[in-house]
Write a structure and sequence with these properties.
This protein has 104 residues and is an alpha+beta fold. It is built from two helices and five strands. A three-stranded antiparallel beta sheet has the order 1-4-5.
Amino acid sequence: MKKLFYSIIGIIALAIAALVVIPNQYTDYFNPHIKMETDYAKVPKNTQKYYNVQAVDRNGKKLPYKIMYVGGYDPSQEYIAIHHKRQYVKLIEYIPKNKMPKNN
């Protein structure tokens, strides 16, 4: 009986550890240690689905990760401000090119 109990506890601990270690939009949404940020990116035209988006901060420095998926709504635009918590994207705003930070 003890063996079964410890096995179940071990499986639950591994599942929780996997959720914490493997970042995705769901774990980032609930993680209180990640703050909401606004970053900027150039995205391809003629689509509303943006994958592996390389964003830059307001100083023009690239983020150390790519945002896996960003959904858009205007395929004619190519510059966006992304309000996000790492992989969790709350919303995007299309911005003019002159509002994009200059790359360093």
